[in-house]
Amino acid sequence: MSYATLIIEDETTLARNMKTYLERYGYEVRIAQSAEEGFQQLDSFKPDVILLDLQLPGMSGLAIAGILAQGA
After folding, report:
1. Predicted structure pTM score
2. CA dihedral 45, 40, 18, 60 (to 10 degrees)
3. pLDDT digits over 10-55, tens only?
4. If 0-12 CB within 10 Å is exposed, 13-18 middle and 19+ buried, where does residue 43 land?
5. Per-residue pLDDT at 1 exceeds 80
6. Which run of H or E residues covers position 57?
7. Complete DSSP assignment for 8-53
8. Which of 25, 41, 57, 58 has its CA 20 to 30 A from that of 1?
């Protein structure tokens, strides 16, 4: 079984390392580098898991989590 994962992380190297690791174990992974990009990804990609950086430029990770929780 493959899980879809969205990584919202502004540090490119860290995001790529997490993606590589998860793909090695069969996860389908997409990366967003900002809250806005993450929300755009959610229009076409329905992840099972979202790995979320708490300190993002613009909108904080906690604010994103709050918005996502309201939609659940």
Report:
1. 0.90
2. -130
3. 999 999 999 999 999 999 999 999 999 999 999 999 999 999 999 9
4. exposed
5. no
6. none
7. E-S-HHHHHHHHHHHHHTT-EEEEESSHHHHHHHHHH---SEEEE-
8. 41
The confidence score (pLDDT) of residue 72 equals: 54
**What does the alpha-carbon distance between residue 72 and residue 47 come to, in Å, rounded to a whole number?**
13
pLDDT of residue 25: 95
What is the longest distance spanned by two Cα atoms in the chain? 35
CA distance 62 to 45: 21
Q: Which two tokens stand for residue 14?
A: 């860290």
Pull the structure tokens for residue 46.
Answer: 């329905």
Which one-letter amino acid corresponds to residue 67? I
Query: Looking up tokens 């998860």, which residue turns up?
Result: 22
Closest CA to 52 of 36, 23, 32, 25: 32
